[in-house]
Design brief:
The chain has about 100 residues and is mainly α. About 30% of the residues lie in helices and about 0% in strands.
């Protein structure tokens, strides 16, 4: 493995380690309004009613996430992966899709 590949791998591992506390915070009902969650894997996240207003969720993996009643108003959801996500009653006012 060359130096550039090692560095890219180390950066990705650090990024993945950072996302775990954020996912736990959101799942605990604390939300994360305005957070930068770009590119994170939040697959299967249970976040019913979470406040993610204004959050950067661009290219975030939200597959199978439970987001019913969540506030995603003003959030950036461009190129987010949301297959099988449950989004009943989600507020998307002003969201970028």
């Amino acid at each position: 493995m060359d130096a550039a590949t090692k560095e890219a791998t180390a950066i990705e591992l650090a990024h993945q380690a950072e996302q775990q506390p954020t996912a736990a915070r959101i799942a605990a009902g604390n939300g994360c309004p305005g957070c930068d969650l770009e590119g994170l894997s939040l697959r299967g996240l249970a976040a019913e009613g979470a406040d993610l207003s204004g959050a950067n969720l661009r290219e975030t993996d939200l597959k199978s996430a439970a987001l019913s009643g969540a506030n995603l108003s003003g959030a950036d959801l461009r190129r987010a992966e949301m297959e099988r996500a449950v989004m009943a009653g989600v507020s998307l006012a002003g969201a970028r899709l």
